[in-house]
Amino acid sequence: MNSTFSRDGIRPRARRLLSRLAAVLVVGSLGLGVAPAAGADDADAEQPADPAVQLLLSVGAAGEIAPDTALLGTVTIDNSTDSDLSAGSVSIELNTTPLADGAALDTWLDEGTTGGGFRSLATESTPVVADGTDGTVSVMVEPADLGTLTPGVYPLKARLSGASTVNEDGDTVPWNISAETVLVVTGPAEPRTAVIVPVTATPANGALLTADELTALTSEGGALFDLIEAVSDTSAILAIDPSIPASIRLLGASAPASATQWLERFEALPNEMFTLQFGDADATVQARAGRAQLLETPDLAPLLNPADFPAVEPEPASTSEPTPTPLPTPEPELPDNSELTAVRGLQAGILWPRSGVTEKDLATFAGYLGDRVTTILPSTAVRGSTAVHSAVGAHDLLVTDAAASARLSAAVERTDRPGATADLAAAAGHLFFAGQRSELTAVALDRSETRSPEALRDALVAFATPGATLSSLRAGAPASVSLADPGDSARVAQLNSMLAGEDRLTAFATILDEPAVLLAPERIRLLRAIGVGLDDEEFTERTAAHAERVNTTLASVSVQKPKPVQLFTSAAPLPVWVRNDLPWPVTVNLFSTPSDNRLDIQPVTEVRALASSATRVDVPIEARVASGQVDVRFRLESDTGVPIGQPEVADVTLRADWEGIGLGVFGGVIGLLLVVGVVRMVRRRRADAADESPEESK
C-alpha cells in the first residue's frame, strides 16, 4: 500500500491517528541517507546536503519480531527539497549474519558497515512525493521469504532507487540512498528490563519554580502533565527532584490548582520512586571536594508566606472557669523542609550521581546516606561483570546498560515517530545483548525536560517490564566489579569557588533582617549549578553565571559617589546617598573619616536603606579652623563588621571663616547705617531749629 501525506508544520489529525495506529503494528527503527549508497547505479551523482531526501525504515515492534513470524515494515520518504521527488522503488535487504555485540551494532548504525552479505526480501514501488512532504510505503515479508533466523540482532536496510528531483538550475538530481536499522529476533525467554526515568524541572531564576512556571508545566500540554500521562500504567521507576514538590507546597493556598492536582496525581501513581538530591545536585563532585556531608537543602521556612497557610484555631478554655481565659490569636501552621519535600512511597538509600566515581567516593556516599546506600552507575563506569546488581568491595551498585540507555534517551527526545523508532530498535539490539549476560537489566534515561511524551510512552511500553522493580534489582548476591578510570575532577575547583562565594554572601547577608531570603535561593542555585544532568559546557556556564550573580549581589549595596561639597558655615549636615539594589531593606553602619582634623564629622551613622532605592543620609559636620580642602572617606559595614560595597571619597571645600567675615561686615554696615542715621537726624534737628529762630525774632 502506497500513500503520501503533506507536511506543513504540525501533522493533520488524520496523520496523527494513522501514525498511532501504525505504531501499534510497526514500531522499529530508521536510518538516514543523504549520499548515494555504495554500489548504486548513480553512485557518483552529486547529492545536495541540505535540503535533502531522507529515507526512514521501521520494522517489527520496537525492531523486534518473534522467530517464524512475518516482518511488517514501513518505509518513510521525507522530501525536504524544493521540487517533487519522482516515483521510484524501494527494496528491503537483510544481512543473515547476526551482529556479534553492541560495538558491532553501533558500527552498523552509525557508519553503515558490517560483515556478511545482504539479500533482498522485498521490493515496492514508491509514490511521487511532493516537495516539503513525506510519503510512506508499507512492506510485509512472509516467514518463508524471511527464512529461518536464530535469535540475534541482524543488519537490515532499505534502499531507494530510480527517484529524482530537479534543482534550481533545472538539472535532474538522482536520489539513491539507504537507511540502516536492525532486526532483533527474540529468544524464547524475554529478559526483564527496568527503566529509570528522572523527573526534573529547572526554573528560569535557578531557584524554585514560580506559580506561572508551575501553571505552564502542570497544565494540559505541560512537560510535567505529559510525563504523568506517559508513565501511567507502566512500570517505570521514577526519580524525582524534591524541589518540584517543595515549589508547589511552598506556595500554600497560592499554589496553582493545576500544580496541586498534579502533585496529588503523581503521589497516587503506583510506580516505585526515589528522590534525587535537591536540585539534582551531583554527589560525586561533593565527595571529590572532600565534603563530609552532602550540601544541605536550605531552610525554606523564611520563604513561606504565612498568609498562604490556614491558621490553627487554639483549643477553647474550660467553661468551668468563672472567668474564661481569652483565646490567643490563631497562628498559621507552617510546614518544615521535610514536609515540603516529602513524596509518598519513596525508597530510601539510593544515590544517582554522575559517573566517574572512585572507591573512596563510594565510601563517602556511605557516610552520606548510610552503609546500605545503593549507587546507580552506568556500565561504562565499571569493569568486569555487567550484572545489574554489582558491588565494589562492600559498596552496593545498580549498574545500568550505558549503550541501551543512550539509545533510549535519544529516542524519547524525537518528536517524529518514525525517527524515534530508530533509537528504539537500537536500544532493543543492545538490550538483546545485555539479556544474553543477565536475565535482568536496567536502563536509565538522561536528565531531560524536553522529552516527547508519545516517544516516552512508546519506549516504556516496549521495554519497561512489569516486575522489574528496585527491590528485584537490589536482590540477591551482587557481582564483584572494579571501577573504571574516573578521569579528572575538574569540577571540584568550581564547586570550591562557589562555596567560597557562598561564604562571602553569608557574611554580606547579615545586613538583612532575615538573611535566609537571600541565602536560601542562592544555595538552591548552587545545587543546580552542580546538577548531574549538566554537560561540561552547561556546567561552565552555570558556574560562571553563579560567580557573576554573587559579585552583583555583593555590589548591590554601596555608597554612591558623592559630589563635591562647598561648606560655607562652621556646622552643617553633609548629604550622603546609600544605594540598595536588593528587593529587601538593609541596615548598615556608615563610617565617615576626614583626611585631617580641620573637619569634625560624626564617625558612625546607622542607616536603614530602603529596598530598591537610594536613601539619603545627613551626616553632621563641623569645621574646626579656617578654610581648606578636606577629603571625607565613607564606607559601609554590617553590624558584625563585614565591609559592604566599596568605599567612596567626598571632596569638601571649607569656607568656615566666611561666616565671621560676613557677620563683621554685616555688623559694620549696620553700625555705619546707625551713625549715618544719627548724623542725619542731628542735622535735620539743627536745620529745623534754625528755621524757627527768625520767626521768633519777628
Which percent range describes the beta-strand content? 25-35%
Please identify the structural class as seen in this structure.
alpha/beta
Biggest sheet: strands side by side, in what order? Answer: 15-16-19-18-21-17
Uncertain stretches: 1-49
How many whole angstroms does the radius of gyration measure?
40 Å
The total of helices stands at: 18
Amount of helix: 25-40%
Distance between the termini: 154 Å
Task: Describe the largest sheet.
Answer: 6 strands, mixed
Mean pLDDT: 86
Could you please describe the fold and organization of this structure?
- The protein has 698 residues and is an alpha/beta fold.
- The protein has 18 helices and 30 strands.
- The strands form seven sheets. It has a six-stranded mixed sheet with strand order 15-16-19-18-21-17.
- A hairpin with a 2-residue loop joins strand 18 and strand 19 (395-400).
- The radius of gyration is 40 Å and the shape is elongated.
